[in-house]
User: Fold these one by one.
Assistant:
Number 1:
Amino acid sequence: MSAWTFLVEHRGEIFVTTAEHLALVLVAMLIAILIGVPLGLLIVHRPVLRTIAVGVANVFQTIPSLALFGFLIPMPFIGGIGKRTAIVALVLYALLPILRNTYVGLTEIDPAVLESAEAMGMTRSQILFRVRLPLASAFILAGIRTATIITIGVATIAAAIGAGGLGTFIFRGVALVSNGLLLAGAIPAALLALAADFLLGIIERRLRVS
Amino acid sequence: MAAPEADGNSIEFQDVSVRAGTSAMREIVSDVTLRIAGGETLVLLGRSGSGKTSLLKLINGLLIPSKGKILVKQKATTDWDRIELRRGIGYVIQEAGLFPHFTVAENVGLVPWLEGWPRPQIEARVGEMLRLVGLAPDEFGARRPRELSGGQRQRVGVARALAGDPPILLMDEPFGALDPVTRAELQREFRALAKQLRKTIVFVTHDLREALLLASRIVLLKAGRIVASAPRDEFLQLEHEEVRAFGASLSNQAGEPA
């Protein structure tokens, strides 16, 4: 049976698994954004916290993803087998690009702009919400874009701890030496990544003010 | 001459010193005592690093003195609510510091908007201010700062500083980054504007020509200290080597001290 006929015959199953994969990515990204952006704001004026936060986020990125999933399994509350553990691992991976870009975006703003904002009598929160965040938004979105693409890829490995998603096809494909199964996982994952890159790229360009 | 009530808008430095940073014990401003009367245009002249910008930032509380105090409208800057103090002081800097994500109209209307003016009143004020600095509101209001020339950006910067009708205006080399022709044009227009507005203006520059054109009084700084102070017409007669050094710059073609 050719790979192509396999894909056509199993399209229903592939579609459901892709949706499952996407859900995993979306939940993980949402949590990562909710942690990463506020943390990025917090570390702008706190050098010690910044070193710790970026350092920790960096360490998580260097752990091979399969190992990170493995480490999490015996953890209480956040560990175990299944989706919850997978989401925790994905969040840890997505955190660094979001955190770093939020921080860089907030600090790369023209000092003359911030100085005028202060001199015009804007309060700290007005400067944050009306000046800093809008001017950093393209940067922050670039971080979210990078993190999303990473997460779509890493999420395929989540199947190893029973979280489902497109990795299920890939692991089965490797075990059975089946190109059809491998492609059933790889092609939708690649398409998801390309689509995310494209769509978030459009938003990012619209936010950018040069 | 300044109107009598304008004298309430005076600025006074009382034996002010500022240290740079917490670890560096270097003084960037040393023992400055200076009274700026309401309605006068005082130019702070000096080389780079002479402390003139620091003096300016002490007035609107962007810098806090390590010794002495600064009275703005007879009240110490440390006693002012900092936001209230700054809303009453216009500030124009070299790169204009316009918000790139705001339109020209939004930039100019910033302080009125912060002060909670009703929208029609803000719009009227923005139009008035843009015309005052020689920009047609219909043509420029909807543009972004990046769509303007350097000279136009500086004009918008001046309009923004004046929009809240502050009695005090601080200007930090506002025309420094412009080409010579545009700079001369803006200097002439600003001199006329300053006469018309009768605000207390503190103007920082390293260009003696500009100081002589705009000032009612010139204060010369060197290494954080006031070394000379005189009404404009008497300034060049002062016997001080730094005055002579600046005076010599007038004969240079560039018109800037070496």
Number 2:
Amino acid sequence: MNQDLHQLHDLLIAQHQALFAKLDEAGDADEGKAILTEMQEILHRIDVLQNLLFRKTTTALTNNLQKVDDADTELTNTLKSAATATDIIKGVGKFLTVVDKAIDLAKTLAPLAV
Amino acid sequence: MSYQTKSIATRWVTALLAAAALVLTGCKTVPADTLTSFTSGITSARTQSQEAFNAVNELVADASLDYAASQTNLVESSFTAGLDEESLAAWDQVLEKLEKYAQHLQLLTSPDLAKSFDDEAVNLSAELNNFGQHLQGSGLINKSPQISPAIATGFTKLGELIVRLRAQTRARKVLVATDAEIGRIFRTMADSVGTSRTNEIRGTVTAHWTQFLAEKKVAFRNQPDLAGKRQIAADFLQLLERRVAQDLVLLSLRRSLLQLAELHHALAQGERWTAQSAAAAIADEIKRTRDLNDRFKDKLKNQ
């Protein structure tokens, strides 16, 4: 179906070009105008088909993006795991700060326990 | 730190770098230059698409009015949308997704990936140092533990290399797995622009310019005086030039899209480490290690 539309589009473009060449052979002004009108009718159909073809292409492209989405998710997860290594170190630092506070508290409370 | 300890630490870091170089030499890597070209190429293709397609739509809109005016009745079907908004948004969305994918690849293969890891390791060394002194001050231990900047550098470098090598391996795996599909996407996009001036969007655009030229031909036949004919001939020549110019814009977009497919394929193929690239990478690693060591020395200077 899609291939047929492509072929029809190509055919109309070829016909449009053939009519353009015929203009040089037109016997009088009326014949020239008649060819021009025909060309305009064909051009309108070329535009209609172009719209359909582009829509079909973009729809197909959007539907086939799953693999790119999956790949991007994998890349994002790997980036997150690199950040996790950093978070672990950061966590140790935070832990030490808490231990420091606990030691300070223990020091404050020690004389009271005596 | 004694001379002997310092020497052991230096040898340790050197051995670590040599091992990393050995691992890298045996594998293929993601070529950084190609990856940069790939990312910026997608961004350019997005802009190119918008500009090229807007120009196409201007042509179609104008012709649509002429066509509607030539009809007996004014009907909606006389007006064609050209490349409609929804499809244009979908096209842009495809490129936007590919752009994000490329940016993530760039982040993942960047030497700066493990920079925050280094930063936190340096901060931790200072905190460990303070913590030891705190314990000593509290009378819980007799002597605060000594942290050697060289040993700390070695361990941090090891962690950093693990993080980076793992990221490189994943990036290569993803590139290989997606190469066929991404190549197909770019080639489909390039083909929809048109393989020649007689098909797809390039064909449609050529037909519009042919229509303008045809109008000039008829006008020329009907023009009685020479001055009038000369003006029409000049207009005709200008139209021919504009036809070529607009086709070149579309041809350039097509070439960009095909080049992006080739660039991705080159990324998926990877580049073998040559003696030169390995030497450059090792020199870079040595510089980074020295910088890291200096930062540790600075944080642990009271040792």
Number 3:
Amino acid sequence: MKTYPVEINVNGEWQKAEVTARDTLLDILRDRFGAFEVKNGCAQGDCGACTVILNNKAVNACLTLALQANGKNVMTLKGVGTPDQPHPLQQSFVEHGAIQCGFCTPGMVVSAKALLDSNPEPTRNEIREGISGNLCRCTGYKKIVEAIEDASLKRGK
Amino acid sequence: MKFTEYIKPNDLSDLHHMMEEYKGRSTVIAGGTNLIPEMRNGEKAPELLIDISDMAELSFIRENNGSIAIGAATTIAEMAASPILLDNSPILASAAKQLGNPLTRNRATLGGNLANASPCADTAPPLLALDASVEILSPGGKTRQVPLSKFFHGYKFTDLGKGEILTGISFPKPKDSTKGSHTKIGLRNAASICVASIAVALDMDGKTCRKARVAAGSVAPIPMRAFRVETLLEGKEINAALLEECMAVVKAEISPISDIRGSLEYRSHVTAMILKRNIKRALKQEI
């Protein structure tokens, strides 16, 4: 099996791994780097549970080869904020109860972070559009949209 | 399972060397939004991936000498937000904006959308309506241009020969007198696969249609031009009677199938309806 070295900056720390050409960014984030906050839902780009920010763009980690992330910056949910220092979005998700089973939450928060980075005060429609790549099987979209809207308003103040 | 090799050219001259060296046994990967799931589920097992996703020379949207050119590695998100496309060819920007979802649009590329040659390729109908040509690079470094209307040969089958790479597209900058409109019908607003789509570009001389380009998606084995509808429109004053005729002709010209997303009957009906609406919307007139 031919392998290739990659070096990827995950949440500010450079991580190294030997990968095959077929390994996806999702595979190595979870299996090599222990980034279990990146969820494996459908592994084919339908659900958004594995959303990460790759060089400032929100992408599906399952639709990106590990080799395509070589030398780049990856931000996962843990890079957005931590339990000690939550991002306003994470705080807002908690306050609004925008979490049911929680499986989509990491991807939702990361997509919302990318949205607010490029559009700090989105309309409700822009929020819906911004998270349209992320499926919530509990269908708890209303509270998720409200949480993102509230975080954007609080940040704007 | 055989393993896959991976190489990443830094620039076009690198790419030429690699195409020459690995003639015929390489598969190009850019965004990978189609190819990666196909590799995962075993549909495709490429021997060698040539990754063009970070090639700056293939990632551009330019306007010069009355022509607009887009590099194959340009992402769909870049197209949807491009001031050049929003100003000159809003039907293309509109189609890009409706492809997949924000996550896939950040990876998926123009070249991939066309080279994958699905009948539901979202960027194809507006590009057909804009008279776009595809630029193809052959091993050995020669390039050739093919009108997009001759690029699609059949279901997921294109004019690309062994080892050839689609490097970009170009189309003449539409004239001020050219009026366009585009509609994609999906089963939901976001992340939908096209059930039927129509793109029109009508060059108008007052009320008379000088030149018509009408293209449809998801209603034939390939993204198609509706040549008979175009002929019917050209040289005529567009009125309600002509629109009814167009609806009948487009139904005869398309060859939709029934699948999980829609029946043949539905596709036929909705294609005629959105054709009428798009012509009316392009002309912004009540007829």
Number 4:
Amino acid sequence: MKILYFAWVRERTGRAEEELAPPASVTTVAELMDWLKARGPEYEFAFADAAAIRAAIDLTHVKHDAPISGAREIAFFPPMTGG
Amino acid sequence: MAAEAARIAGEARDVGAVVTFAGICRGDGGRLAALELEYYPGMAEAEIGRIVEEAKARWPLSGVGVIHRYGRLEPGDNIVLVVTASSHRGDAFAAAEFLMDYLKTRAPFWKKEHLADRAGGWVEAAERDDVAVKRWSAAAAGRR
């Protein structure tokens, strides 16, 4: 699945997007964030405060307990400041 | 802006009220050199479309338009334009406020400040915007 990062989440992970294949044991957005944190110190830094991270699956806002199976694209970003 | 408002109002029948809101990049008395708006291509369009459909479901609107810019903006530049047209002003005003409250909290854009004299940083989401958007849930519940 494609994982996208925006704003300071992108700056901290050091990348805008990547193609990853989390194991089947990772079933929710929260579990995906925990799995990403383990990938390296830059991810640990980006996801240090899970409550500050918002997520979207296939272009739709989701909560952290949302299931990720079947997702084509998951994005992580800070609270939005548009408008 | 006037052209956009005229286009949206002109497409509809029975328009008695047109409300136009423009969100503008503030200069903060010279502190800000530029604002950089990052956005999520694909989701920004989808989310704005959803917010507009929600507004049309809640109020009888003859026309609606939302334009949101991205990239580098300077003080004085328009960031966002919201136009609503309806038979009566109450609906046009309410829908415009609703659209702005939702754009502020749900549209995937992020502002980064470039300051005049030093490095800037990411603008933080304002708690007042989260408070403002909640009133529309309460209002909808009250109407049922």
